[in-house]
Each structure stands twice: as C-alpha cells, then as structure tokens.
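Input sequence (249 aa), recorded before submission:
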Amino acid sequence: MLTLNEAARIERCLRSATFADQWLVADSGSTDDTCQRAAALGAEVHVFADWQGFAQQRNRLLPFIRTDYVLWLDADEVIPDTLRDEILALLQTRPEPFVGRIAWLEHAFGRPLTHFQRRGLPRLFPVAELVGFEGVVHEGPLLKRRLPVVELRAPLHHHSRETVYDSLRKLAQYTQLGAAKRAQRGQRGGVLRGLASASAMFIRLYVFRRGFTGGGAGFLFCLLIALECLFRYAALAYDRDHLETLAKR
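Predicted structure, token format:
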C-alpha cells in the first residue's frame, strides 16, 4: 500500500485485510500519524520520502515481501467479506500461478454507485512471477511470463471521492501526473484537445457506464474525471516546463 497523510482511512483499509499474512506500507513522508496508526495495527511501514513515482514506490517494497502472493491496495479501498472469502478460496484451490483481476464498486460522496459499470484491474499476483511495477500513474505489474487471469466476482470497495474538497485535490494531482505521462510520449496539449477528451470521457462514464444512475453523486463523479481530461491537456500546453515534479500519494 502507498500512503501520504492517510490517517483518516488507513485503519479502515487495513482492518479489512486482516486475513493477510503480512502488511507492507510505503509512506511518502506523511505529516499526520498515518505511519503510527499503521504500525500500531501490525503493518511494516517503510518511509521513502524521496518520491520517484508511483511504480518506483511500490517497487521499493518488493524486497520485503515474504508471502507467495501479493495483493496491491490503496488506502481508499476496503475489502468486503465476500471478496476476502473468494480470494482465500482461490489461493487454496488453484495450485498453478494466476493473476487475480478485481473490479471496483465505486463510492462517491458517501453513496455507493451500485449500478455504475465496474472495471476490473489486475491486483493479485504470485510473488515469484512479479518483476515489478511500471507507469507514472495507474501503474501496472510486470510479470516474467503470461499467466491465466481469474476474474473475481466480488468487488473491491473504492472510496475515491469522499468530499468535494478532496476530489479537487485529486483532480490537480492526476492532472499533473497525466500531463507528465503524455509529455514523456511527446504528445501535444491544448484546450480544444482537452475539451474533446473531456466530452468523450463524460459521455462514456455518465451514459454508457451508467453514471446517471447515481444521481447527483454520480454526476459529480463523472464530471470530475472528465475535468481531469480537460486540465491534463491544458497543463500539457501551458505547464509543460513545470511537469517534472511528480505529485505524491
């Protein structure tokens, strides 16, 4: 798990993972009591304040893993009992290595977006096959070989948008990271590109992935993600010389 000033959420996340044999936390230099709270619950906390990106922060934890499988979590996620039971059953019944893909149940502003179409992400990996992680943002695993993927039925609860204020902070964070990622690829920015990207994203989330079923919370959720697209391309055009400082988590 990666953390930075997650004192309000760290305990909820860790308590949902009590079935794990080991908890590893990579902290980016929290100024609240995130590290103390995690350590008090039994987590191994390693502080790496010299932030070098999301993937590198996770890679720094790899030498400390002592289990056969690793489950990648963020502090704003909670493992429900149904997912816990499914994970444990898989680990007990599948002798061959596999990757577990887990979908999110999004929670926005205190409301679960139950009918929002979920998307699965690879989250459970055999340690012996894991080389590391890569990516500026939305980092992903590098494996030694292609492994069968198991789609878990139970979702991971994702509390990514709990307040409007924190959502705007996240918007700024992901705007910067997304712009930096595209700058490295040599892509061009601009307001018109941003408007086109934001419009397409909003329609995809609000209409095709059924964000409209979440009422006002669903609308805000989709709008904020679409705004990331707009400002990402604006930052790529106007902040290009200031994208080298990576935002932390």
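Checked by second reader. The helical segments are 10-15, 34-40, 54-59, 81-93, 164-184, 191-208, 215-238.
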